[in-house]
Amino acid sequence: MPALLRGGLLQNARSLSPFLCFMAAASLAGCVGEAVDDTTQDPSIGESSQGIRGGYETNEHPAIVGILALFERDSALCTGTLIAPNVVLTAQHCVADIENDVNGGVACGRTTFGAPYRPGQFFVTTRPSLSDEMEDYVAVRDVLVPEGRIQVCGDDVAILVLDRPLTAEEAVPVTPRVDESLVKNEQYTALGYGATDDFGSGAGSRRQRDGLTVTCVAEACPAFYATPAEWQGDAGICQGDSGGPAIDAAGRVVGVASRGAAECELPIYAHVFAWADWLKEKTVHAAGLAGYEAPPWTRGTPTNPVYEAPTGASCSSDETCAGGICHDGYCSRPCTELAACPSGYTCKTATDAESEEAFCARSATPRSDEDASAQSSGALCSVGSPGEDPTKPIPWIVSGAVGALALLRRRRAC
Question: pLDDT tens digits, residue range 316-329?
Answer without folding.
Answer: 999 999 999 999 99
